[in-house]
Write a structure and sequence with these properties.
The complex is a heterodimer. Chain A has 26 helices and 36 strands. By secondary structure, chain A is α/β, with parallel strands linked by helices. Chain A has six domains: 94 residues, Roll (Ubiquitin-like (UB roll)), CATH 3.10.20.740; 94 residues, Alpha-Beta Plaits (2-Layer Sandwich); 152 residues, no CATH class; 232 residues, Rossmann fold; 165 residues, Dimethylsulfoxide Reductase, domain 2; 97 residues, Beta Barrel (Barwin-like endoglucanases), CATH 2.40.40. Chain A has a seven-stranded mixed sheet. Chain A has a six-stranded mixed barrel with strand order 31-35-32-34-33-36. In chain A, strands 2-1-5-3-4 form a five-stranded mixed sheet, with helices on one face. In chain A, strand 1 and strand 2 form a beta hairpin. Chain A starts with a strand and ends in a 16-residue tail after the last strand. Chain B is of the alpha+beta class. Chain B has a domain of 104 residues: 2-Layer Sandwich (Alpha-Beta Plaits). In chain B, 24% of the residues lie in helices and 17% in strands. Chain B has five helices and six strands; from the N terminus they run αβαββαββααβ. Chain B has a three-stranded antiparallel sheet with strand order 2-3-5. Chain B has a two-stranded antiparallel ribbon with strand order 1-4. The longest helix of chain B has 26 residues. The chains are: A alpha/beta, B alpha+beta. At the A-B interface, strand 6 of A face helix 2, strand 2, strand 3 and strand 6 of B. Bound molecules: iron/sulfur cluster (4 copies) and FE2/S2 (inorganic) cluster. The site of one iron/sulfur cluster (SF4) has 12 residues of chain A, from helix 4.
Chain lengths: 927, 182
C-alpha cells in the first residue's frame, strides 16, 4: 500500500485508486461533480483540484485534478493550500454563473450535491453581472421532472444513462455554453433505470416527479431501512413518509446487492401504499355483498369464533409476497398440514427445484457485485430486464470486463473511464441470450437465439452435454441446435468465471434443470461457474425455504374435494395464480373466506371477512432474495385505521383463540426466533438485523426522523393542542421520533438499521462515502443481510440429476406454446397500482411472430382468443418479428393471468368480435 | 466613638435623600402607560404576530420551500407544497401554532421570498389555546407587507404562466440547441 502525505499527514491508501477516491476514502472533504464511484473519472468538471508537490523542497507545487491522478508512492499533496482552494472556489463560481435562483422551488434543495459542494468550495457571493443562459425543459414521462436551467454540464447523466445503463434516448446536444442534456424530442425516457438520474445528477435537473407532486424536503421525511418488494433481487431501499403517506423511495447502499442503483419499478412502485383501494378498516360482507365496517376487536372475535368452532376445518394460504414472519405464523395457526404456500403447483415445483439445485453446492450463487466480475454469461429463458431488472443493470457492467482486461494489459487504470471505453470500442465480454421474445439485453449480447421454453431447455441440455458428455443429451438434436450449442459451449469454456442465468420466468422446469446442468458441467471443468435463478416474487424463495421445499401448494388445495369451514388467505390474490373457474368452484366448498391483504383485489372482493394488512412501508418483515439472503425491512410509519402487519393480526387472532400453539410468542422478534428454531434452513434469519432490544452506544434507539425535522408542535395542532406522545415502537430498535441515535456521529447506527443517509456537510445520498470502509466498497459496518444458503462442497453425481429432456416444439395447427411475457411496469401485482407505473403499463396482449399471425389470419390490433380451463380469453394481437415461431407470448400480470399461467399450450383463433380499445386516427408519433 | 457619630450623620443624610425622592415622585406625572386606552409606538420591524404576504401581482408569495419551518426553533410552522395550474409552487396548507411561537423572527430571516413577515401586532390573547392556531386563511394578507415590489418568480428560473424561460431578471433568451454558430 502506497503512503501519501496530505497537508503534512501521512496516510496509507490503495494503489489502484485515483487521488480523489483515496482522499475521500480517508474521510477528507474534497468537492467533486463528474466523478462517480461506479462510473469512474473523466475530469470534466475541474472541481476536485489539489496541489501536488514534486518533492519536499518544492514549495509551489502544481494543480492536479485529483480524480485524474493515480495514487503514487510518497506523493505529497495539499487540499488546503491557498492556490488549490482558490482554484476550486473559482471553478464553482463559474459553474454557478448561469445557475437559476431556484433553490426554494427546487426538489433537490436540502439534498443537493451542488449546494453542498458550493458551500464546501467556499463560494458565497456572485460577481458575474451578465445574463444567465436558459433552456427549455422537456416532458420525460411520469417518473422524472426536467429543469434544464439547473445543469452544470458535468456529463454524469449521459455517462450513466448511455454508458452505464445502456439507454439510447438521453444525450447531450448543442455546443459550447448551449449544451443541452435531454431527449431528441419530448417523450417518456425508455430506460428501465432512468429513475437513478434523480441521484446521479448532482443538481435538480432530473427530479422524482411523484415526490414532487406531494413534495417534502429530505429533512422532513421520516424514513426506514426497507427492502424492495418489486422482485426477487432484494434491493435495499430507504422508504420515506410524511403526514401518513409514502412520499418516496430512495436507494440504500448495499455493496453486495444494489450498490448505488435501483430499477424504476423499485423506485416508483411504492405508490400503491397511498392507493385509494387500500383496505383501511375491518370489513364483514353482508347479505347484499357490501362490506360493513367492524371494530378490530369485533373482527378478532368473529375470526376466532370461526376458527375455534368444534370440528371446523381450517386451511390457510400463504404468500410469496408476504414476510417470513407472517407466513410462519399462519402455518403455525392452522398447522403445517393445513398450510398451502400460495404458489401455483407449476410455480412451486419450479421453485422447489431451484432451491434443491442451490442446496447441492454445484455452483456459486453470485451476489450482484459478483455478477459484475463474470467473464461470460449465458441467459436461458429469462427476460432479466423485466423480471429482475437490477440484475440486468449489473450484466451491462459484466460485459465490460473485456475492456477492463484490455486496459489492464496496457496499464490504463480502470477508473480512467473515457480511456477504457475508447480503448475497448465495441469489444465486450460474451453474453448469450436464449429467450422466447425480444430482450432488452440484445444490444450487449454477442449471440441471441429465439426459442420457446422447451427448445431453450434442449439447447441448455445440449451445451452441458458438449462440455461434459456425462450429462444427458437430447436424443433428436437438429443440426441447428447442435451448431448453436457447440458455439455457446465454446464461449463458456473459454471463460474463467462463466455465469449461467435462468429462472422461473418461462414457467418451465426443464429450462431450470438445463441451466443447472450447464453450470455444473462447467464447474466440473474447473471453472468458477456461477448460477443465478430469478424467482418471481420478493419472498418466493423464503416461503419455499420455510417448509424446506415441502409445502403444499395452491393447486393441491383447489383440486381437493373437502368442504372447508374457514380458509385464511394471506396477502395473495388467488385470481392471479389459478383460473377463475377453478377458484370459484373451490370457493363453493368454502364456508368462510378470510382475507388479510393490503388492496381491494379480486380475492378480497369475494371474502367473508377482510382484515387490513400493512404494506412493506408500514411494518417489519424478513424477506429472502434470489441468492438466499435474508434481509429485514422496517416500517417507515404507523398505518392509519385498523391496518396492522399481517404477523400482528395472526398474533392477535391466536391470542383471541387462546391457542397454546404460540407458546409465549407475543413480539415480532420472538416470531423471528421461532422461525430460526423451527427451520434449520432459516436458522440464520435472526442475524438479518439487530433485534428490538438493540441500543446505540449512548443507549438510545435509532431515530427515523432527521435531527432537524420541522413542524412537530404544529403538525396536529389543527386537531388537538395537546401534543400527543410520538408513537412508540416496541417492534424494532428504531423510533418514530427525531430523538435518539442518528447519523451525526459515524458508527452510531448499524447498516441494517440506517434509515437514510446523511453526514455533516453532505446532505445528498452521496454522503454514503462517509459510511464506506473504502470508496465504493463495503459499508464500514458490513453490508446488511445474511446469506442462508451455504456454499457447501458439491453433492456427488450431479450429472445424474436432470435427465428429463422435452421434445422439440412444433407448431401444430392453432396450438401454440404459451409463454409469459414480462413488463417491468405492470407485471408485478402491487407496484402496478402505483399511479406513475400504471401510466406506463401496456395493455394486455398476445404477441406472435408474423408467420404465425399470417397462419391465424390476424394483424396488429386484431384480437386473438383461446378457450382455456373453461374460460374464454381474448386479448389484442401484437405482431413481432422477435417472438419465437412456436409461441404466443402473453402479458403476464396484466390481463387474464390466472387463466393463462397454468397451461403450457393453447389453441388460438382470431377473435371475430374483437374491437381494439385503441383510439383510432392516431398518427405514428402518438403511440 | 467617632465612627459611631460619623455613621449617624451619614444615615440621617441618606434618609433625607430618600424622603426627598419620595416627595418628588408624589408630585411628578406617572410613568405607567394606560394600555390599551393608550397605545405604545412599535416600529414596523417589531417582531410579533406573523403574516403571509402576497406578490405585487396579488398571488400568494409563499412558494412552500419549507425554510421557515426548518428555521423555527420551536417547530411551530408546518405546511405542504402543492403546485398550481400555472406552475407556481404554493402551500396547500400553512399552519402556525402561535401558542408555541416565540416571535424570534427566524422564519422571516430564512424566507427567500419575503412571504412570511413579523408584524408589530403582539395582541394575541385567547381563552382557548386552539384559537392560537392560525391556518393560511388567517395568516394571508392582501398586500406585500414590508417589502413592496419584490416578486420571487421574477428572479427564479422556473416557468410560470405569463413568465417564460428567458423572461426572468438577468436571463438570456432560451438557447437554440440546434444552432451551429460558434
Ligand atoms: S440544483 Fe441545487 S443549487 Fe440548484 S436550484 Fe436546485 S437545490 Fe439549488
Ligand atoms: S443534467 Fe445533471 S448530470 Fe447531466 S450534465 Fe447537467 S448537472 Fe450533470
Ligand atoms: S430490481 Fe427488483 S428488488 Fe431491485 S429495485 Fe427493481 S424491483 Fe426492486
Ligand atoms: S420560507 Fe417563505 S416561501 Fe418558504 S415556506 Fe416559509 S413562508 Fe413560504
Ligand atoms: S471530479 Fe475531478 S474533474 Fe470532476
Amino acid at each position: 500500500m502506497p503512503t501519501i502525505i496530505v497537508d503534512g499527514i501521512s496516510y496509507q491508501v490503495d494503489a489502484n485508486d485515483n487521488l480523489l477516491e483515496a482522499l475521500l476514502g480517508l474521510g477528507l472533504d474534497l468537492p467533486y461533480f463528474c466523478w462517480h464511484p461506479s462510473m469512474g473519472s473523466i475530469g470534466s468538471c475541474r472541481q476536485c483540484a489539489v496541489i501536488q508537490y514534486q518533492d519536499e523542497d518544492d514549495q509551489q507545487g502544481r494543480l492536479v485534478m485529483s480524480c485524474m491522478t493515480p495514487v503514487t508512492e510518497g506523493a505529497i499533496l495539499s487540499i488546503d493550500a491557498e492556490p488549490a482552494a482558490e482554484f476550486r472556489s473559482a471553478v464553482i463560481e463559474n459553474l454557478m454563473i448561469n445557475h437559476p435562483h431556484d433553490c426554494p422551488v427546487c426538489e433537490e434543495g436540502g439534498e443537493c450535491h451542488l449546494q453542498d459542494m458550493t458551500v464546501m468550495a467556499g463560494h458565497s457571493m456572485r460577481h458575474y453581472k451578465g445574463l444567465k443562459t436558459t433552456h427549455r425543459n422537456q416532458y420525460l414521462g411520469p417518473l422524472l421532472n426536467h429543469e434544464m436551467n439547473r445543469c452544470i454540464a458535468c456529463y454524469r447523466c449521459v455517462r450513466y444513462y448511455q454508458d452505464y445503463a445502456g439507454g439510447t434516448d438521453l444525450a447531450v446536444f448543442g455546443s459550447r455554453g448551449r449544451v443541452y442534456f435531454g431527449r431528441h424530442e419530448d417523450g417518456v425516457l425508455q430506460s428501465e433505470f432512468a429513475g437513478n438520474l434523480v441521484e446521479v445528477c448532482p443538481t435538480g435537473v432530473f427530479t422524482d416527479k411523484p415526490l414532487s407532486e406531494r413534495y417534502t424536503r429530505k429533512w422532513d421525511l421520516q424514513s426506514a431501512p426497507a427492502v424492495c418488494t418489486g422482485c426477487s433481487m432484494g434491493c435495499n431501499i430507504s422508504v420515506a413518509e410524511r403526514y401518513g403517506e409514502l412520499r418516496r423511495i430512495h436507494n440504500r447502499y448495499n455493496s453486495e446487492v444494489n450498490g448505488y442503483f435501483l430499477c424504476d419499478r423499485g423506485r416508483f412502485g411504492g405508490g400503491f401504499v397511498n392507493h385509494e383501494d387500500r383496505i383501511r378498516r375491518c370489513g364483514v360482507r353482508n347479505a347484499s355483498g357490501v362490506y360493513d365496517p367492524v371494530s378490530k376487536q369485533q373482527m378478532l372475535e368473529k375470526v376466532s369464533a370461526l376458527i375455534s368452532a368444534a370440528g371446523s376445518k381450517v386451511v390457510a394460504i400463504g404468500s410469496p409476497r408476504a414476510s417470513l414472519e407472517s407466513n410462519h405464523l399462519l402455518g403455525k395457526l392452522v398447522g403445517r398440514e393445513n398450510f398451502y404456500s400460495g404458489l401455483s403447483g407449476r410455480e412451486q415445483s419450479i421453485i422447489n427445484a431451484i432451491y434443491a439445485i442451490q442446496q447441492t453446492g454445484g455452483a456459486r450463487i453470485p451476489t450482484l457485485r459478483e455478477v459484475e466480475a463474470a467473464d461470460a454469461v449465458l441467459i436461458l429463458g429469462e427476460d432479466v430486464t423485466n423480471t429482475s431488472a437490477r440484475l440486468a443493470l449489473s450484466l451491462r457492467q459484466t460485459v465490460r470486463n473485456r475492456s477492463k482486461e484490455m486496459a489492464n494489459q496496457i496499464q490504463i487504470p480502470l477508473w480512467h473511464d473515457a480511456a477504457v471505453r475508447k480503448l475497448a470500442q465495441d469489444e465486450k465480454s460474451p453474453l448469450v441470450l436464449v429467450t422466447a421474445s425480444e430482450d432488452r439485453l440484445e444490444d450487449v449480447s454477442c449471440l441471441t437465439h429465439r426459442a420457446g421454453p422447451d427448445d431453450t431447455a434442449r439447447i441448455g441440455y445440449a451445451i452441458a452435454n458438449i462440455i461434459d458428455n456425462r450429462y444427458s443429451r437430447p436424443a433428436d438434436l437438429t443440426d441447428n441446435e447442435q451448431t448453436l450449442a457447440a458455439s455457446i459451449a465454446s464461449i463458456l469454456k473459454n471463460a474463467e468465471k462463466p455465469l449461467i442465468i435462468s429462472g422461473s420466468g418461462s414457467l418451465n422446469l426443464a429450462v431450470v434443470e438445463a441451466a443447472a446442468n450447464v453450470a455444473w458441467a462447467l464447474k466440473g471443468e474447473n471453472k468458477d461457474s456461477g448460477l443465478i435463478y430469478c424467482v418471481p416474487e420478493c419472498n418466493s424463495l423464503g416461503v419455499t425455504m420455510l417448509h424446506d421445499g415441502n409445502s403444499n401448494n395452491l393447486d393441491d388445495l383447489l383440486s381437493g374435494s373437502d368442504d372447508i369451514d374457514v380458509a385464511i388467505v394471506l396477502e395473495n390474490d388467488l385470481y392471479r395464480r389459478a383460473g377463475s373457474t377453478a377458484i370459484n368452484s373451490w370457493l363453493g366448498k368454502v364456508k368462510n373466506l378470510v382475507v388479510i391483504d393490503q388492496l381491494d383485489n379480486p380475492t378480497a372482493s369475494v371474502a367473508t371477512l377482510v382484515l387490513p394488512a400493512a404494506s412493506f412501508a408500514e411494518t417489519e418483515g424478513t424477506l429472502v432474495n434470489y441468492e438466499g439472503r435474508a434481509q429485514r425491512s422496517f416500517a417507515a410509519f404507523l398505518p392509519q385505521g385498523d391496518i396492522q402487519g399481517s404477523w400482528q393480526w395472526l398474533l392477535d387472532i391466536a391470542d383471541q383463540v387462546g391457542t397454546q400453539k404460540f407458546g409465549s410468542i407475543r413480539q415480532f422478534d420472538q416470531v423471528t426466533e421461532d422461525i430460526a428454531a423451527q427451520n434449520a434452513a432459516l436458522s440464520g434469519v435472526t442475524k438479518a438485523a439487530p433485534d428490538a432490544s438493540y441500543r446505540s452506544g449512548a443507549g438510545q434507539k435509532i431515530a427515523r426522523m432527521t435531527h432537524r425535522a420541522s413542524g412537530r408542535t404544529a403538525m396536529v395542532a389543527d386537531v388537538t393542542m395537546y401534543e400527543p406522545q410520538q408513537p412508540v415502537d416496541n417492534t424494532s430498535a428504531l423510533a418514530f421520533t427525531m430523538e435518539g441515535a442518528n447519523l451525526i456521529k459515524p458508527g452510531e447506527v448499524p447498516s441494517s438499521l440506517t434509515p437514510y443517509i446523511w453526514s455533516p456537510g453532505w446532505n445528498s445520498n452521496q454522503a454514503i462515502i462517509k459510511f464506506q470502509a473504502e470508496t465504493g466498497g463495503a459499508l464500514t459496518d458490513s453490508d446488511p443481510g445474511v446469506r442462508l444458503i451455504a456454499t457447501a462442497s458439491p453433492v456427488a453425481d450431479l450429472h445424474t440429476r436432470h435427465t428429463t429432456i422435452p421434445a422439440i416444439t412444433r407448431h401444430q395447427g392453432g396450438s401454440l406454446q404459451l409463454v409469459p411475457g414480462y413488463h417491468l411496469f405492470g407485471s408485478e401485482e402491487l407496484s402496478a397500482y402505483s399511479k406513475a407505473i400504471a401510466e406506463l403499463t401496456p395493455r394486455g396482449y398476445f404477441a406472435v411472430h408474423p408467420d404465425v399471425a399470417g397462419q391465424l389470419g390476424v394483424a396488429d390490433h386484431d384480437g386473438l382468443e383461446t378457450q382455456i380451463n373453461g374460460a374464454n380469453v381474448q386479448l389484442e394481437v401484437v405482431v413481432s418479428e422477435s417472438v419465437a415461431r412456436q409461441c404466443v407470448v402473453y402479458s403476464y400480470g396484466i390481463d387474464a393471468t390466472g387463466e393463462l399461467v397454468h397451461e403450457k399450450r393453447g389453441t388460438f383463433k382470431k377473435a371475430e368480435s374483437w374491437e381494439s380499445s385503441r383510439p383510432s386516427n392516431l398518427i405514428m408519433s402518438d403511440r | 466613638m467617632i465612627k459611631g457619630i460619623l455613621d449617624l450623620i451619614r444615615n440621617t443624610f441618606t434618609q433625607l435623600i430618600t424622603l426627598k425622592m419620595v416627595l418628588h415622585h408624589t408630585f411628578s406625572p406617572p410613568d405607567t402607560v394606560q394600555y390599551p386606552e393608550q397605545m405604545p409606538y412599535l416600529p414596523p420591524r417589531y417582531r410579533a404576530r406573523i403574516i403571509l404576504t402576497r406578490d405585487p401581482d396579488g398571488e400568494e408569495r409563499c412558494v412552500s420551500c419549507n425554510l421557515c419551518a426548518v428555521a423555527c426553533p420551536v417547530d411551530c410552522i408546518v405546511l405542504q407544497k402543492t403546485e398550481s395550474e400555472d406552475g407556481r409552487w404554493y402551500p396547500e396548507f400553512f399552519r402556525i401554532n402561535f401558542s408555541r411561537c416565540v416571535m424570534c423572527g427566524m422564519c422571516e430571516e430564512a424566507c427567500p421570498t419575503y412571504a412570511i413577515q413579523l408584524t408589530p401586532d403582539f395582541e394575541m390573547c385567547e381563552y382557548d389555546r386552539s384559537n392560537m392556531v392560525y391556518e393560511k386563511e388567517h395568516l394571508l394578507i392582501d398586500g406585500c407587507g414590508k417589502y413592496p415590489g419584490y416578486s420571487f418568480w421574477n428572479v427564479s428560473g422556473k416557468t410560470i404562466s405569463g413568465k417564460d424561460k428567458g423572461e426572468a431578471e438577468n436571463e438570456a433568451e432560451p438557447v437554440d440547441v440546434r444552432s451551429l454558430m460558434p
